[in-house]
Amino acid sequence: MSEYRNLKGRKIKFLTSDLSGEAAEGQLFYSDTNNDFKTVVASEVWSSGGDMVKARGDFAGCGTQTAGLAFGGGPGSLANTEEYNGSGWAVGGDLNTARSLLAGAGTQTAGLAFGGYVPPNNKNEVEEYNGSTWAEQNNLPAATRGLAGAGTQTAGLAFGGFTDTEVTTTSEYDGTNWTAGGALNTARRFFSGCGTQTAGLAFGGFVGPPDTDQSATEEYNGSAWSSVNSLAVARRNIAGCGIQTSALAFGGKNPSSNNLTSAEKYDGTNWSTTTVLGTGRRGMAGAGSNNTAGLGFGGITTTATEEFNRSVNTITGAAWASGGNMGTGRYILAGAGTQTAGLGFGGYAGAIKDETEEYNGSAWSEQNDLNTGRYALGGMGTQTAALAFGGQTNTNLNNSEEYNGTSWTEGNNLNTARQKVVGAGLQTAAVAFGGVTSTDLANTEEYNGTSWSNANNMNTARKTATGFGLQTAAIVAGGEVSGDAGITTVEAYDGTNWTAVNDMQRIYYANASCGTQTDGLVFGGAPGAGQSGSQQWDGTNWRTSASLGTGRWKLGSGTAATASSALAFGGGPPPDGNNGTEEFTAESTALNLNTLTDS
Predict the structure, then answer these.
(1) What 3-state class would DSSP assign to 183?
(2) Tens digits of per-residue pLDDT, 217-234?
(3) Which of 136, 172, 425, 488 is the most exposed place for a label (fewest CB within 10 A)?
(4) C-alpha angle 564-565-569 in degrees, rounded to nearest 5
(5) C-alpha closest to that of 230 among 197, 272, 199
(6) What topology is assigned to 320-585 in CATH?
(7) HEC profile of 531-586
């Protein structure tokens, strides 16, 4: 009998720790730790990415999995552009012509948008994107909606769609002008395309009347289209990405479902089914360079983003998961601590709350109450060394209290009584900022563990903002200004002065946060009955992140937690408040190991 080494060219390794890395695929080894034979196998899976800033459908996308671009769409006619960096979305420059049912091609820094629809008219406008702004170019030969695209900004391809009927028209773009190319074999709209100008791919779509969903696939060689093997599932409003020899198709609708989850991959000859989307949808867009690394995003009424990977690593997307419920549901409360050692105190739910609870990573337990029950107060620090300040009863308060892990002790008061105040730092080195008396405040105060002293004001007075970081390196984000208007404005504090930095992607206030000045997470808040979105700060820019399971505002957080291990609890809407807790886990990657058995 031949030995494994002779058959495979390598011997079975004896290891005290598991293999790692892409090179480990297919290797068989014996794990001394587990006393098992193991192998490393590749898997295909969709994992969650950061939600889009704007929910939309019938829009266009281009780029790669780590540098995607989304533009246009509906409801109505949108000009919004967003950029994806491999974890979340940020707002880019708007299209000059807002529209839906358009097509796109190119990259995040060299994108191409063409065609579309602004009721009641089809559009022939063409625009190029340089990574920040869109510029008008020469128009398509015919105004068309529901078309598909492929190629680059200087070698683009537009094909199919609807003028006053479905068309087979193909047009080639050289960076300046459009010229006629070979006609599709199957006229269609609401389909998808990918590849290059000389090696394009078209698949799916719709023809009517009578309404017929398409599975037809065609390849373009730079002059003519040829019919090849069809999709396994006929569908319209489909998304895709990749190249002619390595493509993905996903989502869409047909008579069996308005929001399909099915996905297929193309190898240049055949389509084969692969792992389904986590969220079925239609009218979404796609980006990606091949059928092993794709990106699907948006769709009718959703902001969901998913990444497709074929890898020896199992990628688990960032997500919020439910934790133990608080004993007392409430909103407009304050928090401190970490994900496994949290602290919640004060708040309101039909009455002013003085209750304090500690979280051990799975359950909350009642502790000694605040000396002064209050709501709309500020909080910071750890579970065994927390600080509560300001707030409201029937008047604005300047009370400050310290928690030692057992009980609260009165400390020296803030210089300015206020409510809806926030802060950052630790019990012995804290900074409090913003809030409201009869007017919104820009006031900043620093605490040294004994007393509060006035410091330089913020540039923008605000209330119901959120803050995170340290006394010498803090961030204030969002909030409300006069007239109760939400803002996206963000400022950084260096221990002396406040400096304006890049704005958040969405207007949020009455939200919560944690992290450092270079790695923060903001979540929940208003406007509306309660937002579920999260936004991540990397010290320079904001990107969207995974959404809370339950939208809520005026919630508490573990202020000393890291951005990758956040804790959210309580919150509104009123009258009773929320007692739910959620824990955040950042995206992780682990080797996909299989244990071999004899069964």
Answers:
(1) coil
(2) 999 999 999 999 999 999
(3) 136
(4) 130
(5) 272
(6) Neuraminidase (2.120.10)
(7) CCCEEEECCCCEEEECCCCCCCCCCEECCCCCCCCCEEECCCCCCCCECCEEEEEC
Domain borders along the chain are 4-40, 45-317, 320-585
For 276-296, the pLDDT digits (tens) are 999 999 999 999 999 999 999
The H or E element that residue 6 is part of is: helix 4-8
Domains 45-317 and 320-585 share a fold: yes
Q: Which two tokens stand for residue 184?
A: 């599709």
* C-alpha to C-alpha distances, 245 to 241, 267, 268, 364, 513, nearest whole angstrom: 11, 5, 4, 54, 45
Cα distances (Å, whole numbers) of residue 360 to 469, 541, 558: 22, 32, 12
d(CA 450, CA 448): 5
What is the gyration radius of the CA atoms in the chain, in angstroms? 28
Residues forming beta bridges with residue 137, ordered by sequence position: 126
- Tell me: domain 45-317, CATH 2.120.10.80, correct? yes
SS3 584: strand
Q: Could you tell me the pTM of the whole model?
A: 0.87
Handedness of CA 537, 538, 541, 546 (dihedral sign): negative
- Which residues are paired to 228 by β-bridges? 217
- Cβ atoms of 7 and 21 closer than 8 Å: no
Pick the closest to residue 194 from 210, 213, 164, 217 (CA basis).
217
Q: Which among 370, 371, 336, 374 has a CA at the least distance from the CA of 356?
A: 370
Q: Which amino acid is at 137?
A: Q
